[in-house]
Amino acid sequence: MVSTPVAQAAPQLSVTTVASGLSIPWDVEVAPDGTALMTERSGGFVAVRPTGAVVRPRADFSRLFAVKEAGLMGLAFDDGFNTNRRVYTCQAEARPGALSIPSGSADLPLPFPSTGQVVNVVAWRISGDWTSATREPTVVTGIPVTASGRHAGCGLAVSGNTLWIGTGDTATPSVPQNRQSLGGKVLRAQLDGGPASIYTLGHRNIQGVAVQPGTGRVYAIEQGTDRDDELNLLRAGGNYGYRPDRAPLIYDESVPMTDPIRVPGAIGAVWSSGHPTLATTGLQFLPSTGWGEYGGGLVISTLKGERLVFMRLSADGQRVVSSVEALGESYGRLRGLAVARDGSLLVTTSNGNSADRLLRVRWMS
């Protein structure tokens, strides 16, 4: 059963601009040395060094398929980044044959026809001076994406040797419940090799995945239809109940986000937005100090809602006991989230036209 948290008055926050002139920075993560690395949807890394200097590492994105909601998306650092300099991205790409592939490509062979597009999870090695990124073998392939780019996902999180991948259902009726498709799922892959496996299914469009420090619980934030963005606590093998295939070939978004009648045993959300949706994107757990009563809680970013939503979970992680909204309609659409070394929150805007910014947010009350 979805909890109804106690809403509180908006907190006082301090907001400063860290970097500007960005173009839809989809995700942001912070390296051990304090560098904030971002992915821009149309292709390209942007690194903001602790000194404030902005560096754009050279990288080959010639195969990138950047259309609407698809492009260069989720980002995660390897836990061993200090020694291996490895990061992972979720990116939509043209399949082999759809355009020329640079010689010396490190990609694994893809078992697909020579046209169309696919979402791949790619490993990159970042140079020590942050000026270049070298592509390494593809980690996961076969995640579907359509020519429209709709519901492409794609959120990433790393915990030890495990890579968590939240995917979109491509707005295709059968995909969320189809165990033969990697769309509308949360996937789990082992970074030391082996294929990705389906961890959960029955999702619509996941753009944020996060692992709770101390407990290892994995959460995903999912975009709803005209109602009910969801925060879900993931359970191995769980079905989260989205089934939009009421009629063949018709994507029926009037169905519930969690439908226990048509999907027996469907797992309910920890939190749901109700109506209207906020278009939830980023998900991040906060440090235990420096965030008032929300220390150790979580924060969600929203596009349509143009706000941050802070939440405090119950001890068992299955309920939201309180929540508060902030930055409402002050900075436009908000997307990527990361915690900086000083405990502040980094937030990317997603307004387009090279007018986007990386913001630093601090809790003042």
- Looking at CATH, which topology would you report? Neuraminidase
> How would you describe the oligomerization state of the chains in this entry?
single chain
Q: Helical content, roughly?
A: under 10%
Structural class: mainly beta
Can you identify the CATH superfamily?
TolB, C-terminal domain
Q: How many whole angstroms does the radius of gyration measure?
A: 19 Å
Give the second-level CATH assignment, the architecture. 6 Propeller
Low-confidence runs (pLDDT<50, min 5 residues)?
Answer: 99-114
Q: Largest beta sheet: what is the strand line-up?
A: 1-22-21-20-19
Architecture overview:
This protein has 365 residues and is mainly beta. It has one domain: Neuraminidase (6 Propeller). Helices cover 1% and strands 40% of the residues. A 5-stranded mixed β-sheet has the order 1-22-21-20-19, with no helix packed on it. The chain starts with 5 loop residues before the first strand and ends with a strand. 49% of the residues are buried. Mean pLDDT is 93; it is low at 99-114.
Brief digest:
By secondary structure, this protein is mostly beta strands. The protein has a single domain, classed as Neuraminidase.
Key descriptive features of the protein:
mainly beta, four-stranded antiparallel beta sheet, 1 helix, 25 strands, 1% helix, globular
